Amino acid sequence: MINQNSNPVAWALLLCELDEAREHLSELINEMSRAGSIEDSTFAVDLGHIYAHLNRVWHAHDQNHEMSEEQRITFSQFPVDLDPTG
């Protein structure tokens, strides 16, 4: 895994993606709490957006350079090397 000392730019990009995921998740929670309901299609889009941020973090967690646009598209996909738990 990269770290702040050896790869400060890549580290900052990872933190930015995590922060974006947190921000969007918070907005989703707030909107659902306020509205009391959500359409399936809206929920799917919102969760997909959050997953894309988290997926990019996973795929780039050991990459020591900024991702290309091609990698960004690929890295947005759900990882096949990560087993969900819980």
Tags for this entry?
86 residues; mainly alpha; elongated
Note the main sheet: none
Count of DSSP strands: 0
- Share of helix among residues? 55-70%
Query: Overall mean pLDDT score?
Result: 93
Order of helices and strands: HHH
The span between the termini is 23 Å
Rg for CA atoms: 15 Å
Could you walk me through the main structural features you see in this protein, from its secondary elements to its overall organization?
Helices cover about 65% and strands about 0% of the residues. With about 90 residues, the chain is mostly helical. The protein has one domain. Helix 1 packs antiparallel against helix 2 (about 40-60).
Q: Secondary structure elements and their pairing?
A:
Blueprint: H1 8-35, H2 40-60, H3 69-75
Offer a quick outline of the entry.
With 86 residues, the protein is an all-alpha fold. It has three helices and no strands.
